[in-house]
Amino acid sequence: MADGVRLSDEQRLDWLRLIRSDHIGPRTFRELVNKFGGARAALEALPALARRGGAAGTRICSLEDAERELKAARAASVTLIGLGEPDYPLRLKMIDDAPPLLAVRGDMNVFDRPLVAIVGSRNASAAGSKFAERIARELGDAGYGIVSGLARGIDAAAHRASLLSGTIAVLAGGHERIYPAEHTALLEQIVPNGAGVSEMPLTWEPRARDFPRRNRLISGLSLGVVIVEAARRSGSLITARMAGEQGREVFAVPGSPLDPRAEGTNGLLKQGAILVTSADDVITALEPILGRPPDLPVKEPEWDTPHDAEPADDDRARIISLLGPSPTAIDDIVRLSRTSPAIVRTVLLELELAGRLERHGGALVSLL
Fold first, then answer.
1. Domain-located, residue 351
2. What's the DSSP call for residue 95?
3. pLDDT of 364 strictly over 50
4. Helix, strand or coil, per DSSP, at residue 192
5. Which residue has the higher pLDDT, 229 or 311?
6. Looking at the structure, do residues 197 and 256 belong to the same domain, yes or no?
7. Which candidate, 305, 316, 312, places its Cα nearest to that of 354?
8. Which of 108, 101, 96, 136 is nearest to 220 (CA)?
9. Using H for helix, E for strand and C for coil, what is the string for 209-278?
């Protein structure tokens, strides 16, 4: 495992309270902790920030609720690993919206293996499922761990073929709300040699919007993503797009142009994805990456470097006037507002905590 600093019990509770409070996602969590120098100070500042953003108030996770979740997690053999702790998966730490706390159940040694994601259609063909099983088994034999989303079809086939070599199921909901419910038994087979991971509360019922969030973790954990079958509007294409944004390799298995389940994968090949007909194609592309340090800088937390920046009323008004429903780059807001990046970040935090701002990939924001 990598070196790192472990959270104290009090810090873990503070982190849990902060990430479970309203309007706070991974990026906002990092901004708050960097601004105030710690989760506890950030929690104390939340009401005032939300009021300045235009909200009457904001729900803050109570200490009792956080203690209850942590106790339930431990009873379910789920460990909450903090970003920057030794057991936190190295490549996941690289993405700009890595979960501050990752809920893991199973054998965490699987994170030490080079990981490859295999995803695809829920309505998989027999040939697609068979190929997913074969490539997962061959990659497992070559020392790779397999990551997927525990969905029906291609995901389930990849998991089942890599039970002995090690596989990671990334959950859209909490550990006590497995989706689909029929794969609860499959997860039980996974955890002895692999792991189930989630960023959601233990009893969280997955919603439609939670699956793209899950997909960024599938790609973020992995060196590359193999898309076996994907229709034109498949969620697997979201995983492929996120993999590209995260600097991961994107692989696609070609299919018949007459099969709508291959429309998405054939489209990926036209866009430059690496063609895959065997596990060797994946291994050949990834071996050079394994032979050098990670391409992306590991974003270590800056928890002890508070940024002191309080915007004046005219700064706030000028920054808000530059925002609208269309996503805008934060760098452009800094340039056009003629204020410091720290001032802009503070105003964006205020708006987000008031439920008025949405963050997008690529450092883009928009008003709700």
1. yes
2. S
3. yes
4. coil
5. 229
6. yes
7. 316
8. 96
9. CHHHHHHHHHHHHCCEEEECCCCCCCHHHHHHHHHHHCCCEEEECCCCCCCHHHHHHHHHHHCCCEECCC
Angle between helices 341-353 and 39-52 in degrees, nearest 10: 80
Whether 206 is in a domain gets the answer: yes
Collapsing DSSP to helix, strand or coil, 324 comes out as coil
Contact 177, 154 (CB under 8 A): no
The CATH number of whichever domain residue 182 belongs to comes to: 3.40.50.450
Q: What is the Cα 207 distance to its own chain's centre?
A: 16
Least confident of 64-73, 174-183, 308-317, 340-349: 308-317
Q: Do 226 and 140 share a structural domain? A: yes
Q: Which tokens hold the place of 233? A: 């509007």
190: domain range?
105-290
User: Nearest Cα to 352, choosing from 6, 9, 26, 36?
Assistant: 26
Tell whether the model's pLDDT for residue 308 goes beyond 80: no
Mean per-residue pLDDT for 24-32? 93
CATH number, domain containing residue 346? 1.10.10.10
pLDDT tens digits along 97-138: 999 999 999 999 999 999 999 999 999 999 999 999 999 999
Same domain, 138 and 279: yes
Which residues does 71 contact at the CB level (< 8 Å), separation at least 6?
none
In degrees, rounded to 5, the angle at the alpha carbon of residue 146 between the alpha carbons of residues 111 and 193 is 60
Whether the upstream peptide bond of residue 306 has omega within 30° of 0, thus cis, is no
Report whether pLDDT(19) > 50.
yes
The per-residue pLDDT for 360 is 83
| Rounded Cα gap, residues 192 and 194, in angstroms | 6
Exposed, middle or buried: residue 367 (CB in 10 Å: 0-12, 13-18, 19+)?
middle
How are beta strands 249-252 and 328-329 bridged, if at all?
unpaired
Q: How many CA atoms lie within 13 A of 347 on its CB side?
A: 25
pTM score of the predicted model: 0.89
Give the start-end residues of each E strand in the chain.
79-82, 101-106, 115-119, 145-148, 167-170, 195-198, 224-227, 249-252, 274-275, 328-329, 357-360, 364-367
